[in-house]
Amino acid sequence: MRSRALAVSAALVSALVVLASCGSSSGNQSKPSASTSASTSASTSAGPSESSSGATPSPTAPAVPADTAVASPVAASAMPQVTGDFGAKPTIKMPSTPPPDSLQRVILSEGSGPAVKAGDTVVVNYLGQVWGGGEFDNSFDRGESFTTQIGGAQRKVVAGWDVGLQGVKQGSRVMLSFPPRDGYGSAGSAPKIKGTDTLVFVIDVISIYGVEVAGQADATPQAVPSGWPIVGGKLGALPTIEVPKALPPPATAGATLVAKGTGKPAQPGDVLVQYSAVAWDGSHTEQSWPDPTGKDPTAGAGPQAFPLSASSPFAVLVGIPIGSRVLLRTPPETKSGVPAVAWVIDLIAQENVTPAS
Question: What is the DSSP string of 132-174?
């Protein structure tokens, strides 16, 4: 996710999204774990995320460069064998033959939902293993699915995922195998992935969301109390936010319904949202909503995953029905200089639920 103008991003939104660190010509990745800090360095990560700069192909890259297409399939006997059903942690048995030097995709079981398109946000479970080696990461053991955009303007994951998941239907289990140029490049991802390793992923595509997905257009409008910012715009579309000049900044975080959805109450864990945010003094704006024209520097790339934990300023969203549009206000932070912020948040889906302790 790129840096944007709104200063609150550094203090709040950076805790929501795993950012890849920059500085390696081969592209650095961050492990897609909900417990991973936004500043996680590539040297300690092994998941599929990568920086927006993308992986640099090796000088001796063969005929199938990164970012093109899935290659023609090799013989089934030359590919790993996978056991386990959709939703359960798979087991991968590697063949004794060398790995194909191309991006390979095998649909292990096909779902009946829509197919992933470039720019879509997907919710998946996955297991990653080095060809001829061991497992390096999986979401099944964590009990937390992974949410990311596929094929967007700014790469969020390695090329093997970005290309290989496009066209895969929701509800499918797919195996992807790809060489370093479609993964982490010649630098690898220490300590578990070398720059010469071919990677194998088994991925369950749980849900797919388009870039302009929103809360319920038929949510029931609610009366916003006095003393709150003013929200405009149609439900199901990009909202507007106006903070009256005479309105003092809030002392604590709080939320009020703009429109009430019909989904289940949001629980501690991760929720998928679209948001728009305005600094209380009007100095900055930011949004997850995309801009089709590409001219709005404050526009985002689509829905984001927000954590609803006790330490998160978004904890006040717990209990609000999914599908709702919510007006949220967060107080200024004197130490960092971050101003108070008004947010309009559409609760789209509950992705993960944190088990009660």
Answer: TS-EEEESTTTT--EEEESS-SS--B-HHHHHHTTTPBTT-EE
